[in-house]
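Hi C.,

You asked whether I'd gotten around to modeling the 296-residue construct. I have! Everything is below, sequence then structure, no commentary in between.
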Amino acid sequence: MRMIIIVKKYIFNYILKALLNSKQIGNDMAEENSLLTQAQLIKLESRRLTSPKLLRLYFVSDAFESLPENIAGLHCSLFFPKAHQDLPPLPRFTSYGTVWPNPDDKAVVRSYTIRTFNCQQLRMSIEFVLRDDMGPGLTWAKTAAIGSQLGFAGPGGELPLIPNGDFKIYVGDLSSLPGITALVSSLPADSLGVIFLYVPDESCRLDLKVPPLFRVFWAYAKHEHLNQIKVFPFPSQEKLSAYITGESSDVLAVRKILRGLLGLSKKEMFILPFWRRKKNEEEYQSLRLQEVNDLF
């Protein structure tokens, strides 16, 4: 996933290619020592709203026993059943590629961010952005009965996702909040950095747990967060690094600003678009990989 991910090739090969039904997963997963190398069923335990636009689902599974605790903020693949499927068919990842039970009747595969994980309780949470144009993932998240099962594989990548730096910059929108909140909450207390978040309105603000020396800026108008970035007094003597996720055009605009304003290189930025305006979930999936390949 040259998928605007300027970090570990593991996330490229595993999360994006799984998302787009590639056939190159098996070898890459073996090479990168993934944690759950095969998809497993996990059970929906509960759900709750964390904001008017964020729905958090909690999952439990004995398969989580093989996962370490420090995986919040990493990406995973979820396998959703189609309307006619009681359970999602799960693929096998082999050295020869991805093998589905029935290649003509696959599960719906999507990439999400792990919000929290408790290795003692074998309990994981994942958040879904509530949108008007519901795709298969959000539809399942809102309507599935407690106890329903879906498939899980991952996580992809290694912490820290954000490249090493003395001063960390996080930029995103509603879709970025699960990842940003998970990553920032695990930072040392003396960490330095700033967060810029663009959300629909003040009801979407969260009480973020950030290090004392962090600053957080919320924006509600289009391009307001870009202006906040342009005028922010970034430290000139510190090594900077950035984590940029969210809507495709916003991600690219932020990348351009940070490159021009601060001279950040690709290696100093983690960049990942999650969605695109005027495109629903299904339409964007077909464009996602090509969009990123064109950029890099």
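If it helps when you're writing up: The mean pLDDT is 85.

Thanks,
B.
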